[in-house]
């Protein structure tokens, strides 16, 4: 120790001390195991840059990459009875709802919004699989009806992104009643002559597949998405046979005529713009605006010769 330590603190501890690193900086791909930086992953719409695996994405993140400039307006959805059957398993149904709302930051399992894609006004609805597996309850039924009514009122096409494990068991028969309700909502669009486009994402199963998810005018799926009514494990246990490779995946369904397209998420926006404008009878989308031409400076005017008061004009 010497006199300088009284005025200058040693920094050796701060150099080698452990720094706090946020936990959400890196994500691991479920398919190839690559560690992906969160900014790189979000900038690629949660698609693995190494293997192309489509990882889960929330409706708000999806809409931010879908709408022009990420700008959209939410559509109000009527709130149903929060616990119509007073259902309870290991937890009470209202407790499960509150837990899902706290975890996801959303009111329910579907988000409805209006906005423009490629200057094409649309109505969009997306299910959130992280909210109780995106299960179809009364709120989801109300959301699809609100989306269809908004589309008819504004004369816009409806694009729906499905992702669900089926009907919500906590609402029993009331959840199954959403199948005919949503079917009537789709019929409203057809009577109004408006396109209904469905984008099936991983996974889309159960009563959702048996109703509004397979009633679209155009069906597009993300690569590798599981699309079925009963899952492959249930089918194998029932028929006691080994299913083909890739059974009930998007590519398998495309080969067998159940889908129109299989489009990667990073190309989905351009695909939807093209299909929507074609079905609405609109001209091709404008990809960009040219800058306005700059105003050219005015041409100089000829200056007339003026004679001074004491000056005589020159003789010719």
From TrEMBL:
Assigned keywords, A-Z: ATP-binding, Cytoplasm, Fatty acid biosynthesis, Fatty acid metabolism, Ligase, Lipid biosynthesis, Lipid metabolism, Metal-binding, Nucleotide-binding, Transferase, Zinc, Zinc-finger
InterPro entries recorded: AcCoA_carboxyl_beta, Acetyl_CoA_COase_Trfase_b_su, ClpP/crotonase-like_dom_sf, COA_CT_N, Znf-ACC
SUPFAM superfamilies hit by this protein: ClpP/crotonase
Catalyzed chemical reaction(s): N(6)-carboxybiotinyl-L-lysyl-[protein] + acetyl-CoA = N(6)-biotinyl-L-lysyl-[protein] + malonyl-CoA
Function according to Swiss-Prot or TrEMBL: Component of the acetyl coenzyme A carboxylase (ACC) complex. Biotin carboxylase (BC) catalyzes the carboxylation of biotin on its carrier protein (BCCP) and then the CO(2) group is transferred by the transcarboxylase to acetyl-CoA to form malonyl-CoA.
Protein's UniProt name: Acetyl-coenzyme A carboxylase carboxyl transferase subunit beta
Quaternary context: Acetyl-CoA carboxylase is a heterohexamer composed of biotin carboxyl carrier protein (AccB), biotin carboxylase (AccC) and two subunits each of ACCase subunit alpha (AccA) and ACCase subunit beta (AccD).
GO cellular component: acetate CoA-transferase complex
One protein family per Pfam: Zn_ribbon_ACC
Superkingdom, taxonomy of origin: Bacteria
A GO molecular function held by the record: carboxyl- or carbamoyltransferase activity
Entry annotated with the keyword Cell membrane: no
Gene (UniProt): accD
E.C. designation(s): 2.1.3.15
Ranges for domain CoA carboxyltransferase N-terminal: 25-294
Residues that, per the record, bind Zn(2+): 29, 32, 48, 51
Obligatory cofactor(s): Zn(2+)
Region (Disordered): 285-316
Lineage, highest ranks first: Bacteria, Pseudomonadati, Pseudomonadota, Alphaproteobacteria, Rhodobacterales
Keyword Nucleotide-binding part of the UniProt annotation: yes
Gene Ontology BP terms: fatty acid biosynthetic process; malonyl-CoA biosynthetic process
Family: Belongs to the AccD/PCCB family.
Cofactor binding notes: Binds 1 zinc ion per subunit.
Pathway membership: Lipid metabolism; malonyl-CoA biosynthesis; malonyl-CoA from acetyl-CoA: step 1/1
Compartmental location: Cytoplasm
Zinc finger (C4-type): 29-51
